[in-house]
Amino acid sequence: MRTLKFLLRKEFKQIFRNKALLPLIFVVPIVQLLILPLAADYEVKNINISIVDHDHSTYSQQLISKITASGYFQLADYGTSFNQAFQQIEKDKSDLILEIPQGFEKNLVSENSEKLFVAVNAINGVKAGLGGAYLNQIITAYNNDIRLQWSQPDKFNTTPVISIASSNWFNKFLNYRFFMVPGILVVLVTMVASYMSALNIVKEKEVGTIEQINVTPIKKYQFILGKLIPFWVIGMFIFSVGLLIVGRFVYGIVPVGSLLLLYGYLAIYLIALLGMSLLISTFAETQQQAMSVAFFFIMIFMLMGGLFTSIDSMPTWAYYIAKSIPVTYFIEVVRMIILKGSGFADIKYHFVIMIGFAVLLNGLAIWNYKKTS
């Protein structure tokens, strides 16, 4: 323990002595957590729509008003020529075209039906799909409003009617930031801990101080613990500031579940993550090599860890890759505890998996660290 104490004192002095490193560790993640959730939003708004109105009737104007008042669409062009509207799509000034045929109101009243034509710019598949779905919902709602105006409800309605009442669990107001902030916080903690610890041993190699350490009676596990514990403490601190200060006072996120359980899982996750980073640093000979390898894994963690897309919708091969990385489990656990209030019985499988990651990665790091005397 005395040897480990001296090693930890040395590591903390090195970290806090580097004035350029401190803002990267403590300031940058908080600034990113303040900015990224504001941009990471799957709700598509400000969709530009061109409307070709051949009817110019009261009903067509009501439909246009309903579309523009929805908050999802902006009227980019209004006219009577489809070719002119199509040019707006070619110039990337419009995303959808709604064509209202001539006699729209007349046919709707006399024949009780009419058709509308919708053309969608599908270069951006996500925006096209959501924009078309929004427009379809608005037209359906408008159609229902018209039917209610025409129909005279019977005094005694004998027709069976099914009533549907919906309830939003765990995120009552469908606030997308409640879903994104915990996941982004996990990625930020992962980036800081993995980058800094991966560079740690490599820096010792480049400076030459590792040779002095190698001729001392320090055990390999003591050396690894001395490198792991400081960044474990820093990771815990960054997560605490992000969740308890930024998450609560900026985004209004109050964890529903047990903080003790959450921090217990965080502690094991950081041990596993830092073990992977230290394993990378035992292979790399320069800081550039270590950063390149760490960046490679961080990109996989971000894109395949379930932060933006559900891993259940991935192809089979991608699903198994996602299940083989620690970030996937921690993002899921954070959301389960913070939003759902899950208990230990709900995440005990995740605990077993993460303990396995921690033992495997740190065991490999200790085994691969070459200490010569």
Topology:
Layout: H1 2-17, H2 21-39, E1 47-53, H3 58-68, E2 73-79, H4 82-90, E3 96-100, H5 104-110, E4 117-120, H6 125-150, H7 176-207, H8 209-214, H9 220-249, H10 259-283, H11 287-304, H12 316-322, H13 326-340, H14 344-368
Main location: membrane
Protein name: ABC transporter permease
GO molecular function: ABC-type transporter activity
Compact overview of the structure:
The chain is 66% helix and 6% strand. The chain contains 14 helices and four strands. 29% of the residues are buried.
Highlighted features:
ABC transporter permease; elongated; 2 domains; transport; about 375 residues; alpha/beta; 4 strands; abc type-2 transporter like fold; about 5% strand
Structural commentary:
By secondary structure, the protein is α/β, with parallel strands linked by helices. It folds into two domains: 2-40 and 175-368, no CATH class; 47-150, abc type-2 transporter like domain (abc type-2 transporter like fold). Helix content is 66%, strand content 6%. The chain contains 14 helices and four strands. It has helices spanning 2-17, 21-39, 58-68, 82-90, 104-110, 125-150, 176-207, 209-214, 220-249, 259-283, 287-304, 316-322, 326-340, 344-368; strands at residues 47-53, 73-79, 96-100, 117-120. Strands 2-1-3-4 form a four-stranded mixed β-sheet, with helices on both faces. The protein is elongated, with a radius of gyration of 29 Å. The model has no long low-confidence stretch (mean pLDDT 85). Residues 146-372 form the ABC transmembrane type-2 domain. Its main location: membrane. GO terms for molecular function: ABC-type transporter activity. InterPro entries: ABC-2_transporter_component, ABC2_TM, ABC2_TM_bact-type. Belongs to the ABC-2 integral membrane protein family.
